[in-house]
Amino acid sequence: MNQMNELDYGTPAKVSEQLVSLEIDGVTVEVAAGTSVMRAAVEAGVNVPKLCATDSLEPFGSCRLCLVEIDGKRGYPASCTTPCEPGMKVRTQTPKLADIRRGVMELYISDHPLDCLTCPTNGNCELQDMAGVVGLRDVRYGYEGSNHLKMEKDESNPYFTYDPSKCIVCNRCVRACEETQGTFALTIDGRGFESRVSAGQMDSFMESECVSCGACVQACPTATLTEKTVITMGQAEHSKITTCAYCGVGCSFKAEMKGNEVVRMVPHKDGKANHGHSCVKGRFAWGYATHKDRMTKPMIRSKITDPWREVSWEEALGYAASEFRRIQAKHGKDSIGGITSSRCTNEETYLVQKLVRAAFGNNNVDTCARVCHSPTGYGLKQTLGEAAGTQTFDSVMKSDVIMIIGANPAAAHPVFASQMKRRLRQGAKLIVVDPRTTEMVKSPHVAADYHLKLRPGTNVALISAMAHVIVSEGLEDAAFVAERCDTKSYADWREFVLRPENSPEAMADITGVPAAELRGAARLFATNGNGAIYYGLGVTEHAQGSTMVIGIANLAMATGNVGREGVGVNPLRGQNNVQGSCDMGSFPHELPGYRHVSDTTVRTEFEDAWGVPLSPEPGLRIPNMFDAALDGSFLGLYCEGEDIVQSDPDTQHVIAAMMAMECIVVQDLFLNETAKYAHVFLPGSSFLEKDGTFTNAERRISRVRKVMPAKAGKSDWEVTVALSNALGYPMHYNHPSEIMDEIAALTPTFKGVSYAKLDEVGSLQWPCNDAAPEGTPIMHIGEFVRGKGKFINTQYFATDEKVTLNFPLILTTGRILSHYNVGAQTRRTENVAWHSEDRLEIHPHDAEDRNIKQDDWVGIESRAGQTVLRATVTENVQPGVVYTTFHHPESGANVITTDNSDWATNCPEYKVTAVQVMPVTQPSDWQKNFSQVTEQQLRLLQGESAEPVFAK
Q1: What Gene Ontology terms for biological process does this UniProt record contain (predicted)?
Q2: Which domain does 86 fall in, by range?
C-alpha cells in the first residue's frame, strides 16, 4: 500500500532506439540511449534512494538523495537527471554516498515535525521510508532558531489538507500541476530557507486556480498534502482496481479500502485511458455512494399522490410485473417499454434491452444516448461504416493540429484535456470551434491558433465552408481519396462544396465567422501534418446534428486524416458508458452490435439464443414514447438509471407524459425527479457495489469491480433478472461474467472479450475478435469498415428556432468541471463548494441593454416556458448568446428548451433556444410549482398524505 509502489522510479530522459551497455554495481545492463541512470539501475535490480523523482514526472534532481559515483566523472551526479552512456561504470552504494545521503536527510528532518506515530501518512510516507533507507539515526541540528514547524495548515479545500510545516520543497506537487494536469496553479514562493509551495500568489487552495485533480496530493512524498479521508480513517488495508463512473474518459482507479469502506480513490498508473491521472470527480467525489439520500428499500404506490410504501423485493417486483402485464393485456404488447442507462454497466444495459425484447415482446427500448450522441452513431455509420470514434486517447500525442468542435474537454473530459494540453505545449496547433470562449481557447501555456466563434446552430454552414477552402485550393489528399473512398460520392460532394454559396465569404453572414479566419483555420488543418478532430455535444445536439457529424467525417476523409495515429474523428462521449449503452443494443431499431432488427439472419441468432420470437419492427424512441403516452397508447415504462424528467428537453411536456402513464418503474440510487412520477421504486447500486464493464469514448472496455456489498441487497443486473423472472421470462445468470460471455457469443465486435482476458490485459478496445484478438486501438487502417468511405453532401438549413423581437437571444447549454450531467451524484458531494447553482452567462452589452448587473436574478423565457437564474456578466459569451449549465433540478434549464430535434435521430436541439432575458424579483411559476412538488414528495416518502400539485 506504500505510495512508492505507485511512484517508483525516476522518469527517463528522452530516449532513442539505440541501445547502450553499462555497468551498475557490477551488474551489466543494456538500455535505450538517453535512459536515466536511475531507470537503468532499476533494470539492474538496484533501487537508488530518492525523494523528488517519480516515474510520472520529468527528472528534476533537487533532493540530492539519488547521487551516484561514475568512473571518470567528477563529483556525485544525480542519477535521475544523468543519461546513460556506453561503457559507464556506476556505483550506487559507497561509504561516501552513504555519508552524503545521511547528511542530506538530516537537513530535511531538522526542519520537519517528528510526529510519525500520529501523522496520517505513517506507514505510507516516502520521507519516513528514505530516512530508514539511508540509515539516519540522529539529528544534530535540533529545532533552535528559524523553522517552519508552526506554520498554519490550509484546510480550505474540502478534500485535502495542505500542511506547510511538513513540506520539503521537493517540487513534486508543482511539477505534477504543470506536467500532468497543466493548470500551473502551484509555485514555489520565497527563496532559500523561506521557500514553500504556494497556490497562486499565496492564496488558499480554494481561492487559487487549483482544480482539485489530486495530482499534487498523489505526488507528495510526505504528509504535506493529504486526503482528509485518510486523516479521518487512517491508512487503507486492501485495494481493488475498478473504473470511474463519471465521464467518457473511463479512468482506472485503485479503490483503497478499510473493510467495506472506501478510504480513497487513487488513479491507477497502469490505466490505459488515464495513465495515473484523475479529476476532482473521479478522485474525490465518490461519497454519493454512501450518502444519506441513498434509497435502499423497494417502494410501491397505486397513484403518484399516494404515500410511498416500503415493501419486500418480491412484492415490488411482483407488483411491477403484474401492472405491466395488465397494461399489455388491455392495450397491446407495444403499450410498454424501457429505457437503459449510460451510467450502468454493459451487462446491465444488455439485460434491460433483452428484457424489453424478450419479455415485453417489443422493441420499445431507448437510452440517453438519444439525447446526446445518437447523431454520432448515425453519421459515422453512414460515412465510415462504424458508429464509434476512430482513435485511442493516446493518439493525440501524435497530432500536429487539433480541431475541437462544440466541446470543452477541460470541463467535461478533464483527464484527456490534460493530455491534449501536454501535446499543445509541445507545439501542436489548435483550432477551437465554439460560440463561447472556453478554457481550451486560452489557458496557461496553451492558446488556440484560431477560435471560430460561430453563431449557435450554424455548424453545418461552417464545416461546408471549410471544405470549400480545402477543395478549391487543392489542399485535399487526392491519393487517399482515390485509394480509400467511393469516387462517385466524392465527385458529388466535391461539386457541392465548390458551389459559391458554400464559400467562407458567402457563409460569413450566417456563421458570424470572418472569412479570413475560416480560411486560415481550414488551411492550417489541411496542411499542418496529422489533423485530429474532437467534438462533443455542441455538434450533436442540433437540428442538423447528424449532418454535422457527416460533415466532420467528410473533412477527415478529404484530408486523409483517418486510419493512423494522430488523426481521426473523435466523439467525446459524455457519460461513463454512453458508448457501451449504444453497443449493447439500446436503440429501438438495433440489436447489440448495431445490427438492424429487420435483419432476419441476425434476429434468428438472437431468437435461438433467447428462446423467443423477436419483433422485426423498430420500436419507439424516447420522444415517441412521450407522445404515445399523451395519446393513450403507451402506458408503462421501466426506467433504469436515467432521470428523464430533468435531462430531457421541454420539461413540462415530459411531465405531462409521465402523468399520463399508468405504471412507471424507476430503478435508481436516489429518489430523483422522474421518481416523483413513479409507481414502483427499485433501489439501484453504485459502481462500487457491482461487477461489470464500462466502454469509454475510445471504445475501451474496462472492468468494474465490486468493492462493497450492495446497500439494497441487489446489484442492478440482479434486479433486472428478478423482474424478468417475475414477468415469466426466465433469466439465469450467476455472475456478470456470464452475461459478457453471452454478449461475446452474439456480438461480432465483442467476440474476443471475456473477464479472464480483461483481467489479464487490463482493458480492450473493440472490435476484439478473431481478426483482432488484442483489440483495435485505431480504426479504419487500410480500409474503412464499410469498404470505401462515403462522402455525403451537407446542405445547411437554418434551424426552426429563430430569434425574434420577442425572443432576441440564443440560449445554449453545457457542463462545468465540478459537476456531472444532472448532478444527482456530484450534488451529494463536496463538489457543491465550487458550483452550488446553475447561472446564466450573459455578455456585458446584452446585460447593459437590460439593466442586468452581476448576480442579479433574471427571468429566461422561451416558447416552451420560463425559469429564473442568477446572472454572470462575462465576455466568455458573445453578444446575442446566453449560456447555462443544467446540473441543478431547481434551475429548470430544460423547462425552456424546446422539442426541436435532429432530423435523423431525434436528438434534442439543446444548443439553440430563442429566449428573452429580463431582470426579475421572484422565481418563475414553474420553480414555485417545483418546490411544492418536492415538498409533497418528501411528505409522501414519510408516509404522510399531501395535496396533489402535479397538474399545476
Answers
A1: formate metabolic process; respiratory electron transport chain
A2: 19-93
